[in-house]
Amino acid sequence: MEKKKFKSTVIERRKEALENLESLGIKIYDQLDKGFFPSVEMPSRSLENIHYDPLLRQFILGDRKVRRSARNIRHLKPFTQLVWAAAFSHELTSQRKTSTLRDVYYSAQAYEMTFTDQQESNNIITDLETVLGLSREDFNIFPEERSAVFGDLTIEYTVPGYEGRTLNLTSHPDGVLIGPALTSSEFVKTTADKVIAIEKGGLFTRFIEENVHKKFNAILVLTAGQSPRATRHFIRRLNSELNLPVYIFTDGDPWGMHIAMVIISGSANAAHLRELNTPDAKWSGVWATDIVNYKLPTDPLDDVDIKRLYELQRDPRYKDPLWQREIKTFMKIKKKAEQEAFSRYGLTYIVDEYLPAKLEETK
Amino acid sequence: MEKKKFKSTVIERRKEALENLESLGIKIYDQLDKGFFPSVEMPSRSLENIHYDPLLRQFILGDRKVRRSARNIRHLKPFTQLVWAAAFSHELTSQRKTSTLRDVYYSAQAYEMTFTDQQESNNIITDLETVLGLSREDFNIFPEERSAVFGDLTIEYTVPGYEGRTLNLTSHPDGVLIGPALTSSEFVKTTADKVIAIEKGGLFTRFIEENVHKKFNAILVLTAGQSPRATRHFIRRLNSELNLPVYIFTDGDPWGMHIAMVIISGSANAAHLRELNTPDAKWSGVWATDIVNYKLPTDPLDDVDIKRLYELQRDPRYKDPLWQREIKTFMKIKKKAEQEAFSRYGLTYIVDEYLPAKLEETK
């Protein structure tokens, strides 16, 4: 099989994760050797230190730092927990095993490390991300899988037992899961010239059945609602390594809009991270103006929807005219529509008419 | 590739679906030809007509019938809707396209067939299942995909564009989705001697990483919570066509217990259907007695959990001594535990110790 590898970030990232973890350990040993109480410093994640960066088009952390020191009795517990989390993550990464946030919480007990509840252990993992400047998936702590992909992309696995094996992502016409093996694979070959991300499983299946991947040379990604971070990182890689434009199709409501926005510009919770967002990705629909133009069947916006629209209106990620126009239109028509609403014009209308029109419009 | 096909039900079921739909149509035309108001008769799904059958080990419908006639003005709308649903399903099945319940609701508008809301269209599809004696997946109305499978089973697709193509279900180490293509595939070859169904994605990934499929010759199925009906039908086929015993692992709480029970004995909602349950499947854990014996980290049962346990205690599906014992133990210890709780003994304890012990115990 002819192999045409794209510039990959997989190997470097794993190396970087291990190196960062090890240099954290060395730093702590050094401090102990010198007779100091060990400490770590990291950017503060408090609300006052989270700013929107219009250049990076995402939230970032400011200059404020917090220091966690073994000298301070109130810091002693979280400091120890952080060092344990680093050691555990190093164990995972070097043994090439993956884990989940839930697993981390229970695993701590195997080491007689106690967390009051899962929230506490989740926070420590976020601290570790902040200290290392890496996403937890880089040190092998993954979310539960639920999103999927289908399309002409040949990948080469790097996970144990599968090294060097390849798979073309059209092999299974229901789609394959986006989990640790897929996200750590190298991209070998593709004929696709775009990525289409889809919020809902029903439409993902429809797109495969209607050969959207062939007709539009597209790799199809099912986000299954708000996309897990591993999926957002995968979409970013499709965009940056393969140079493929990304189009996002969601339900026509504030929640669908925000699914698209988080793929594009990330979340405030991940202000300490890069490499998760795809700033050039486009939200291609269902827009509020599509609801009007295509005369779609609708449901009325409820109070929670409207409250959400007011929040989004003030959100710095939503300042562009297109987003503001759509928010205003939602508020004016007071209606929302699902992706499936296009079936009122027949099952294939969305593929035959709507999709090509919107791909053209948001090119 | 050597092909060893197992007794398959795929082709017959599709033929049966089309034939049943067509004979329904012929029946209606016949009545019209004879100058009668057309009508259909089906078993009543009212609560009084749902009984538990200890022999079949599932809920079934009794002898009461309902008749829907075009003569009765109150029946006219649901009768018309039913006939439309049958025509639409025939269109889907003969064109080999799939749809979802949501899509059906919107598609009706393309035919100027109105449903007040989705509940109404869902009910009509259930009526159609009852009339035909088939599950809606048989006439190509599928749930959203979210469950997955991994293990040494070679399947042969029957969906358009993939006819005759095969895939081994170890090809993608994150697992492949259980969707229309997988559930309509033929089983060609396997070395597995059991099926292990798992409630949660984190554990499914752990099992793959720890080579449970090899060490225990198992096909691993991720139910992702309460398993969709297509997944239950797939598990049943693994059991009946390949003769593989099925072991189910869930969280140790009333909800996990019921995930296992629905795979085994089905739900009251599907009393009009067969072919969804696997009566010989075993719930292998996490039992309440496992929580005690393995000294697992726990959370207290809350009021909703306890209320649910009282419901299950009276449920005819739960009459066997093992289930009653576990319900009583839950009530006594007033605690629940997740599958991940075994990580307190290290990440691989669940695979090295717990899994083999429980497979032996529930053999």
In short:
Two copies of one chain form a homodimer. With about 375 residues, chain A is α+β, with helices and mostly antiparallel strands.
Distinctive features:
homodimer, 363 residues, alpha+beta, Arc Repressor Mutant, subunit A, Dna Topoisomerase Vi A Subunit, Chain: A, domain 2, 2 domains, 6-stranded mixed beta sheet, 3-stranded antiparallel beta sheet, 15 strands
Secondary structure layout plus pairing:
Two copies of one chain form a homodimer.
Chain A: H1 10-33, E1 39-43, E2 50-53, E3 58-61, E4 65-69, H2 73-94, H3 101-110, H4 118-132, E5 148-150, E6 153-156, E7 166-168, E8 176-177, H5 180-183, E9 186-190, E10 194-198, H6 201-209, H7 212-215, E11 218-222, H8 229-241, E12 246-249, H9 254-265, E13 282-285, H10 288-293, E14 299-300, H11 303-314, H12 321-333, E15 335-336, H13 349-361
Parallel strand pairs in A: 10-11, 10-12, 12-13
Antiparallel strand pairs in A: 1-4, 2-3, 5-8, 5-11, 6-7, 6-9, 14-15
Helix pairs in contact in A: 1-2, 2-4, 3-4, 11-12
